[in-house]
Every structure is written in structure tokens, then in C-alpha cells.
Amino acid sequence: MEGVKMELSPATRIFHSQKYNSYIIAIIGFKTKVDPIIMKAGLTQTLIKHPRFSSKLVKDEGWIPCSVNLEEHVIVPNIDDPTMDDPDKFMEDYISHMTTTPLDSCRPLWELHILNLKTSQSEASVVFRIHHSVGDGVSLMSLLLACTRQTSDPEKLPTLPGQNINSSKRKSSSSPWSWIWGLLLGVWLAVLLVWNTFVDFVMYVATILFLKDTNTPIKGQKGSEFAVTRFAHRTLSLDDIKLIKDAMNATVNDVLVGVTQAGFSRYLNRRYGIRLRARIAVNLRPVKGIQDLADLMSKGTKSKWGNLYGFILLPFKIALRDDPLDYVRVAKSTVDKKKNSGGIFCTYLLNKIILKTFGIKAAAKVSHRAAFNITTGFSNMIGPLEEISFYGHPLSYIAVAALSIQFQSYVNKMTMALGVDPNVIPDPHQLLDDMEESLKLIKEALLNQGLLPPLQHP
Fold first, then answer.
1. Which of 16, 113, 131, 132 is an active site residue?
2. pTM of the prediction?
3. What is the chain's mean pLDDT, rounded?
4. SS3 assignment, position 20
């Protein structure tokens, strides 16, 4: 394959440093067995037409277009006993073993594993392993969805939830008091933006220099970033999450943060005073629509790609609360402050300045130190509203594990996935149990307090 080489972005160079050799794992469950021949044919027509999936990375030269041998990238293991006692554990062990071997840098940095093994959630599974330098989680998920079609209409791309944007213009008031109050409100919001940005930036710098989370049983120790990673996931009801969201005038993300805090609190069973934070990577590049990415693969159109993001340090309040709804209330209050802040852009600019001034080793060390001084990562990505098929194979769920805690929606399901060091969290399923139980308790609290409309009661 011939083409023009692409230079390495700063984030790509950091992801290939000694301290950051990370991968994104995407697990797709299917309602039917997967045909490897059909899967390879679909990949030929879509994914490998994307420049990053048909290029190898050369450290001092950039992304170099190359030929793709699908037999090297699509792995179909021979599963001797398809009727084994615990297929779910087999799949977890298989995925965990994948993290022990690096991808071959002499070819494009991705691979796809087809596991025709019936588990508790699917008839078969496909596991993508993609080096993080290829793209961030949001970009890669959008690209994978661009390879799918609606099950009810094979010609249509999936539909993602849109933002509720009220395009109607508000009527202007001629009252001078309305104008004055509007001006005062604008000034106050600007003051809050500057203050929140200052606080977030100072906290990020302090985290790099000295501010560490409390050492708890779930905080990794030195060297844990090189340990074998174990992945576990659980599917929740997205309808229940939306029910709580509407009843509490919150967002889906607020509810998920609240559920996560409640789950950690149950898991730790500790008293107040623990400092525990989650680092949230926020995409700073406008996300290309699925149609744009589909056109990129089918028509060869140009599109910016890669890793471009800043960070939010989100405090997790670890406490056993009498009212489960307080977890969501605290989450909403905290997240609202983060939304009214420019701290995300400051973290991006700081890392960029360090890279240009002191070089890649210093930038990688600073980024690694910021990550090491906090407890976990957190991410939430939206998925299709309707059922979809991947090269003709209908999906049952999607789970993505790039950070410690990852939420991914699909139709009326929300899958939470954990990527953990088993030496730090030896029982990830217990943590999933606690998070699932926390969601139930929050919903029950809404019912008991009469905060749900009668028609929405179970």
C-alpha cells in the first residue's frame, strides 16, 4: 500500500514511552456465532481502509502505510471444550492473557479475536485489542460503530442519542431590570469560570508534585502499571439509570458517578476522610459523526484523527450514606462545577508546554505521575439507540476497557467494565456487585420517597 506517512502526535509519542504502553480492549457480544470469513471480508471493506489501521508506527518517522495481512490480525483460537463449566471465566482469562504480550510493531497495532464460545451474555464474542496510540476511546468507538448497520435496516448507520438543544430563540425583554439581572448573572458566571479553572489547575499541578490519594486496598502501588490486567464487566438497565436521571434532574453521567461512588463506598466499607479521585479524559477535538467515519472508509475522505484530550480530576466522596440519593446529589454538584471550568484545556496546554520545552521523557513522567497519584480512571460513552449488526452479526452488548472504570450504553443496556490489577483488586466481581446493588438502592430510595411518577413504578 502506498501513501503519505503521518507524523506522530505528542500523545502518540507518550503512549509509546516506557511508562505508557497501553491498549484499549473492546469486547463485543453477539446473538449468533461469528463467521470468520464474513468478518474478514467486512474488515477488508471498512476498518483497514482507515489510515491508522493500515499503517505501522516507526518511532522516528511516523505512521507509515503498509499492506495488511488479515491472517496476522484476526485470531480464531481453537476452543477445545465449548461446553466447559465456566465459559465466562475462560473468556476473562483469555482476555487477561492478551495483555501479557505486546502487539508486533512491524505491522498495524491492532488485532481481533473471535471467540465462538457461549457465555452468560452472548452466543459468541469478538475482542478488539488496539494500541492507545491509534486513537482515544471516543474516536475508536465511533469508528467501530461506523462499521455497523441497524439490524432492522442493513443500509442504515446506527443512531446515537443527540443533545437536547433548544434552538428556539428566547424572547428578549424590554424591562431594564431584566437586562441588569442578565448582566449580573453573566458576570457571576464568568467569575465562577475563572475561579473553578484556577482551582482545577492548581489541584492538577499539586497532584503532579505531591498530592496523592489515600492508600486504600484499591489504589495501585509502584509497578502495578506493568502487572497483568484482568477485565470484568456487568450489564445494567439503562432504563433504570434514565429513570433516576429524570427524577433527580441530573444527567446519565451524574447518575453513573453517583453509582460508582456508592459502589466504592460499599466495597471499601470505610469511614469518612478517604481521598479518592478519578481521572477523566475529556476529548478536545470535535467528534466526527459516524457518517463521516463511514465515508472515510468507503470513499477515502480526509478526517483528523488521534488523541487530543485534557483531564478532569473528579473527587469521589467515599462514605456510607443514610440516603442513597445523596450519592447522585453530590455527584451532580461536583460535575456541575467541573463543567463550569477551563481546567480541561489547562491540563492539555500544560502537558503540551512540558513536551515542547523538556521533551518526551519529561512529558511522559509528568503524565504518569499525575495518573499514579490518583486511584482510578472513569469514562462514559454513549452507544446506539437501536439494535445493530457488525458485518451481519447482531450484537447483544458492547463493553470497552481502556481505563479502570468504563461505562458503555447499547440500546436499553449500560455495560460497566473494570480493568484492574488482580493483586490490587482480587475480586472485581464483588466491586461490580456493589455497584449494581447501589443502583438498585438508589432506585428504591426514589420509590420510597415518592419521587417517581406512579406510572414509572415497577
1. 132
2. 0.84
3. 83
4. coil
